[in-house]
Design goal:
Number of strands: 15
Strand content: 25-35%
Distance between the termini: 24 Å
Shape: globular
Oligomer: single chain
Structural class: alpha+beta
Largest sheet: 8 strands, mixed
Amino acid sequence: MNIINAIINLVNHPVTTIHAHYVGRNRANSMGDALEEYIKDLFCDTFDETDKVKRLEKISEVFSYLGNNSNPPDGMLKGGDAIEVKKIESPNSALALNSSYPKHKLYVDSPMISKACKTAEEWTEKDIIYAVGVVNDDSIKHLSFVYGLDYAASDEVYSRIKQKIKYGVETIPDVEFSDTKELGRVNKVDPLGITYLRVRGMWGIENPFTVFDYVYERDFNRDFNFMCIINDEKFNTFENKQDLIDLCKKTEGLTISDIKIKNPDNPAQLKNAKLITYTI
């Protein structure tokens, strides 16, 4: 299973009222959880599976790892891409990434991922899909799939600024620090030496609809807008891409266009890419 399968499943099963579909069926406790379950169904083609055990078995066949807010990413496809799911409530809201900076790719030696993720399968690096849903009331209004390769800069861009801040904090005179994966930890702040201060980074990034507004604009008169951007090099690796191309020919509202997008590491350079859109 890959992103092409997910898009085809989205078109064939246009479930957008996720509150009734997931929270109402006790599969999710919140709209954020419901969006994650919806993304699982897209990649596993389990929208019509009413048997909970069979659905779980299919998910287990497709995913090697499933995480949560404390253990990113949200999922890894067996032999395929990683997936990070983000819910926002306003069409132009930024994404809150908290202590993790944006991921160009996912690497097995990243200190931010768990041992379970590292050992879920044999892998060294994975492309990562950001699945961003704009959720209002009980429905998904807008959904985007973009790859970290096309969306975020390389890791060294973020790690460099993180290390500079960390170094600056730790060189403050007359303050006692201890080793930490965060930006800093100050010990013995008070006279008794029992209070400490954690210095944490809170990362955020503009949502894909804002970042790629130079190639795509949503139709706010529609009930649902879907946007997917895949660079040509990645798109050409999918053996089932012709299935999506054929589906476009017979599906109203589904299109594939050739576009050029900015290189996140050097906006002066443009990359060839595919823009896949679907509206209801």
